[in-house]
């Protein structure tokens, strides 16, 4: 168990290290002259040279990487070119919104998918199963940002029940909730469609196993068997997909925040790209990758919590 | 004669529709797609403009057709490159084994750390937004996916009797990979490619919507939607058609992929890996 | 205790179990023997109300004087919770791998009998002791994969006993175990049946195992009863060629250590290809002309009953 954990933590840290190298390399080495990117092609050579000097761009690449990485580990991502404040401050200000959105999206995704997937499996081959699978097949093909627009058209433009976008802050919980309903639904529905399919086929697989018959022979109701025996045993593939989906959800927030004009990290990323604020972009891309890698790490650990057979270091 | 799976038929029909429209757009569209006709803006559907016109009086059908072409082109290039490089890597991993295989598979694990969208955003930020960046990003993220599929299938084939026979006859690993392994892993690779095609269409649309893909005046479903969003109160119909096109294309390729999988391996009919 | 009248099960391609009468008295130990596909498991499942939705069950099922023919799923569930129990062949997969075995056994006690967690645990412990599980205290908190096959089967028996059933159906309980462990499990089942005055239905393809366990044996083939009789009659004075075939194919006692599945020449055809008459026609060494087309009736004799045209012909003509 301890060995297993140590192994996973080492793998996690190694992945973060390699990811940081890739992010740094793409943002710093490949594109040529960042000063040109920042100042634009109308700038003078002198101005560019001065900027390069100020940013330490003339130092060797390895040194620059180490400087960036060491500072980043301590929570210092440098000063934003365009906002003129530390990137860490910008992030701290916007993280709660993105985090709330991602967590709410994950919760809604899992709840919807488990309900639909298990219900479909319980009605295997009957019309309820077909309806749920049809919904899921269609949900997979709908782009989240288009779904967002359709939701806005219906609930904000036509019915005027909910705001079409924008964020009123955290002061009035009711207003905050109203602002986050459509983004959360748009974010979760597509993921739920994918996860419902996975849940269904995982549950069907488990339902064929003998212990389900044992539970039946002991007089348990189908409902109890489904949620108490089938679902826990179907969790391994479900958790795997949830881990992968968390990545989609996190990047999904980038898109959704832009659809609904929500001032989170995704919106900041776009403003920074527009402003050619490479330091901020680099920090945010790294941050999003950290979320994704962390989610994968948590999934690895979750396997062990779910299945006692994996606890003996055989994994 | 075995009955073809329903998803294959529906998927095939939708894909044919989209590809026909895209191909036709190269030689003919009802109107020049960029031709503006300001007095005639926001026209409702009519005999001349089947789906009406946009805020600059441009014909919607023509734009959607050309956008279909762009979308197909991006997906085709990106998935082909990704599939080609990934399959080769997977074949090499399976053929050589040992540390080569280990290295290739560890590297491809990294693909999981970068969702396509994030990777594309990073490239777009570094190189400036363009469809080329979109192609490169999707292709790059596809490499590990195909490396996995190819390696897993290739490893099974390596254990078959005729491969043992070929090895005993002194064929080298490259020749075996080319003559025996590759033809036998074609089916899973093609199935994967079809599904990745659907994902690529979605990704291109999202990136173009965000302004990181197709640049004006090149029509793209994603970009048309981002323009329509600002006009949502004025002309909600503009937000419908491009989204519907994306939906049809993605659904079509997704169903086609599922159908091909059912056809090549009915046992796997119920299952479906993550998207 | 349980009476089945004209019970039959039909699948999409035809009958899987032909009209059969069958009963077990309270505390009686009965065996069903037959190759796979003989319908023995189906017969057992129809007693539990657990035949799959895709199949149709006909006939009258009477459990402890109560007609279950048109009983609802909930009625069946209550019956399974209180009066009937069943254990299956694969002790490996018949236990939920994610639950501690103690919790698995405690669950029905808490659910159906209203035990508290502590009471259920204490009862599970005593059931573990009763079924001869070694180190019962420690086993309670172990997972299935940490137990041996024999221990797992004992856990399943403990689970089946949890609600003091009037009938325990054991479907091939020993087939997945090695010979020595199998012997101990059959002895355990017999002991439990005697001590608790609990009826036992022991289902197996292994005539030797069934004969050790039961007082009465039913021999099935192709969804039909071939012969019934007391265990002694079946083992020493069987009338039916199929039973004789099974007996002949039985491994000698000296080779019991490395048991092989008993075999009769040929193999069981799929249900839709079975002959209309006697199911055994085609593989029968003493087949007569009309055997494949006319279904022989189960004829009562002084010691049992057999369904064989030859048997009738011999009885009337030979003496």
Topology:
The complex is a heterotrimer of chains A (315), B (275) and C (319).
Chain A (H helix, E strand, L loop, with lengths): L1 H27 L5 H6 L5 H11 L5 H13 L13 H36 L4 H15 L2 H15 L14 H35 L2 H8 L4 H38 L5 H10 L3 H29 L9
Helix pairs in contact in A: 1-12, 5-6, 5-8, 5-10, 6-8, 7-8, 7-10, 8-10, 9-10, 10-11, 10-12, 11-12
Chain B lengths: L5 H22 L32 H37 L1 H12 L6 H12 L3 H28 L2 H8 L4 H37 L11 H10 L10 H24 L11
Helix pairs in contact in B: 1-2, 1-9, 2-3, 2-5, 2-7, 3-5, 4-5, 5-7, 6-7, 7-8, 7-9, 8-9
Chain C lengths: L1 E10 L2 E11 L4 E5 L6 H9 L7 E8 L2 E2 L5 H10 L1 E4 L13 H13 L3 H14 L5 H4 L9 H13 L5 E5 L7 H18 L2 E6 L2 H7 L2 E6 L2 E7 H6 L4 H9 L49 E2 L3 E3 L2 H10 L1
Parallel strand pairs in C: 3-8, 3-9, 6-7, 7-8
Antiparallel strand pairs in C: 1-2, 1-4, 4-5, 9-10, 10-12, 11-12
Helix pairs in contact in C: 3-4, 3-6, 4-6, 6-7
Describe, in short, the structure shown.
The complex is a heterotrimer of chains A (315), B (275) and C (319). Chain A is mostly helical. Chain A is built from twelve helices and no strands.
What does this structure look like?
The complex is a heterotrimer of chains A (about 325), B (about 280) and C (about 325). Chain A is mainly α and about 325 residues long. Chain A has a single domain, classed as MetI-like (MetI-like fold, Orthogonal Bundle), CATH 1.10.3720. Helices cover about 75% and strands about 0% of the residues of chain A. Chain A is globular, with a radius of gyration of 24 Å. Chain A starts with a helix and ends in a 9-residue tail after the last helix. Chain B is mainly α and about 280 residues long. Chain B has helices spanning about 5-25, 60-95, 100-110, 115-125, 130-160, 160-170, 175-210, 220-230, 240-265. In chain B, helix 1 (about 5-25) packs across helix 2, helix 6 packs across helix 7 (about 175-210) and helix 7 (about 175-210) runs antiparallel to helix 9 (about 240-265). Chain C has helices at about 40-50, 75-80, 100-115, 115-130, 135-140, 150-160, 180-195, 205-215, 230-235, 240-250, 310-319, and strands at about 1-10, 15-25, 30-35, 55-65, 65, 85, 165-170, 200-205, 215-220, 225-230, 300, 305. Mean pLDDT of chain C is about 85; it is low at about 255-260. In chain C, helix 4 packs across helix 6 and helix 6 packs parallel to helix 7. In chain C, the strands form two sheets. An eight-stranded mixed sheet of chain C has the order 6-7-8-3-9-10-12-11, with helices on both faces. Chain C has about 325 residues and is of the alpha/beta class. At the A-B interface, helix 1, helix 6, helix 7, helix 8 and helix 10 of A face helix 4, helix 7, helix 8 and helix 9 of B.
């Amino acid at each position: 168990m301890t060995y297993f954990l140590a192994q996973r933590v080492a793998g996690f840290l190694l992945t973060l290290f390699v990811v940081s190298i890739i992010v740094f390399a793409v943002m710093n080495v490949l594109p040529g002259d960042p000063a040109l990117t920042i100042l634009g092609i109308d700038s003078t050579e002198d101005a560019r040279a001065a900027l390069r000097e100020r940013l330490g761009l003339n130092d060797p690449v390895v040194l620059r990487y180490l400087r960036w990485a060491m500072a980043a580990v301590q929570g210092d991502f440098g000063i934003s070119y365009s906002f003129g404040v530390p990137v860490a401050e910008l992030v701290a200000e916007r993280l709660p919104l993105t985090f709330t959105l991602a967590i709410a999206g994950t919760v809604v995704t899992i709840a919807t998918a488990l309900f639909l997937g298990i219900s479909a499996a319980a009605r295997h081959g009957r019309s309820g199963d077909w309806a749920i699978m049809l919904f899921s097949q269609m949900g997979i093909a709908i782009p989240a940002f288009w779904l967002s627009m359709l939701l806005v058209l219906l609930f904000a433009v036509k019915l005027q029940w909910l705001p079409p976008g924008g964020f009123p802050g955290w002061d009035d919980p009711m207003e905050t909730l109203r602002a986050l309903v459509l983004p959360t639904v748009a974010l979760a529905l597509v993921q739920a469609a994918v996860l419902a399919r996975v849940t269904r086929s995982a549950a069907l697989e488990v339902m064929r196993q003998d212990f389900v018959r044992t539970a039946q022979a002991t007089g348990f109701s189908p409902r109890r068997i489904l949620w108490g025996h089938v679902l826990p045993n179907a969790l391994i593939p479900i958790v795997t997909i949830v881990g992968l989906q968390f990545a989609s959800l996190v990047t999904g927030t980038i898109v959704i925040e832009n659809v609904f004009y929500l001032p989170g990290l995704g919106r900041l990323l776009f403003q920074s790209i527009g402003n050619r604020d490479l330091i901020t972009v680099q920090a945010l891309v790294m941050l999003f990758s950290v979320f994704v890698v962390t989610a994968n790490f948590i999934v690895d650990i979750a396997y062990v919590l779910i299945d006692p057979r994996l606890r003996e270091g055989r994994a | 004669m075995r009955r073809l799976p329903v998803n294959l038929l529906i998927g095939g029909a939708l894909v044919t529709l989209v590809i026909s429209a895209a191909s036709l757009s190269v030689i003919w569209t009802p109107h020049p797609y960029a031709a503006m006709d300001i007095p005639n803006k926001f026209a409702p559907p009519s005999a001349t403009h089947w789906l009406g016109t946009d805020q600059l009086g441009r014909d919607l059908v023509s734009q959607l057709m050309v956008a279909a072409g762009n979308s197909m082109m991006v997906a085709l290039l990106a998935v082909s490159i990704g599939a080609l490089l990934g399959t080769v890597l997977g074949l090499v991993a399976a053929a050589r084994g040992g540390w080569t295989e280990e290295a290739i598979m560890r590297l491809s694990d990294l693909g999981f750390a970068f969702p396509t969208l994030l990777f594309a955003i990073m490239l777009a930020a570094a190189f400036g937004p363009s469809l080329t960046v979109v192609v490169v990003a999707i292709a790059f993220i596809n490499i590990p996916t195909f490396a996995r599929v190819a390696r897993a299938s290739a490893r099974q084939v390596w254990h078959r009797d005729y491969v043992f026979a070929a090895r005993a006859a002194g064929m080298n690993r490259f020749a075996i990979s080319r003559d025996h392994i590759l033809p036998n892993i074609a089916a899973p690779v093609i199935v994967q490619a079809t599904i990745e095609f659907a994902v690529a269409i979605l990704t291109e649309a999202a990136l173009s919507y965000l302004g990181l893909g197709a640049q004006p005046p090149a029509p793209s479903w994603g970009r048309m939607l981002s323009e329509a969003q600002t006009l949502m109160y004025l002309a909600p119909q503009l937000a419908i058609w491009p989204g519907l096109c994306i939906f049809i294309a993605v659904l079509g390729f997704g169903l086609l992929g599922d159908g091909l999988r059912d056809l090549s391996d009915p046992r796997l009919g119920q299952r479906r890996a993550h998207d | 205790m349980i009476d089945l009248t004209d019970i039959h099960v039909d699948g999409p391609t035809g009958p899987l179990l032909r009209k059969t009468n069958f009963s077990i008295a309270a505390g009686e130990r009965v065996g069903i023997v037959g190759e796979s596909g003989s319908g023995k498991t189906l017969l057992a499942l129809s007693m539990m109300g657990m035949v799959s939705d895709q199949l149709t069950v006909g006939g009258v099922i009477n459990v402890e004087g109560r007609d279950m023919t048109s009983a609802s799923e909930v009625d069946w569930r209550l019956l399974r919770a209180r009066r009937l129990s069943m254990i299956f062949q694969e002790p490996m997969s018949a236990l939920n791998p994610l639950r501690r075995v103690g919790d698995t056994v405690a669950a029905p006690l808490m659910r159906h009998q209203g035990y508290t967690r502590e009471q259920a645990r204490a009862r599970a412990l005593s059931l573990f002791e009763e079924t001869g599980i070694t180190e019962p205290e420690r086993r309670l908190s172990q997972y299935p994969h940490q137990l041996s096959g024999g221990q797992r089967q004992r856990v399943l028996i403990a689970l089946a006993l949890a609600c003091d059933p009037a009938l325990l159906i054991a479907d091939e309980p020993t087939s997945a175990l090695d010979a020595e462990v199998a012997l101990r499990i059959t002895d355990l089942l017999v002991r439990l049946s005697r001590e608790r005055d609990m009826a036992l239905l022991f289902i197996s393809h292994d005539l030797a195992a069934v004969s050790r366990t039961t007082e009465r044996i039913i021999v099935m083939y192709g969804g039909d009863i071939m012969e019934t009789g007391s265990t002694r009659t079946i083992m020493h004075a069987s009338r039916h060629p199929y039973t004789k075939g099974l007996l002949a194919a039985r491994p000698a006692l000296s080779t019991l250590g490395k048991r092989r599945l008993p075999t009769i020449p040929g193999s069981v055809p799929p249900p839709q290809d079975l002959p209309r008459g006697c199911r055994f026609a085609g593989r029968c060494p003493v087949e007569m002309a009309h055997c494949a087309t006319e279904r022989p009736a189960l004829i009562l004799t002084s010691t049992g009953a057999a369904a064989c045209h030859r048997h009738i012909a011999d009885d009337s003509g030979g003496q």
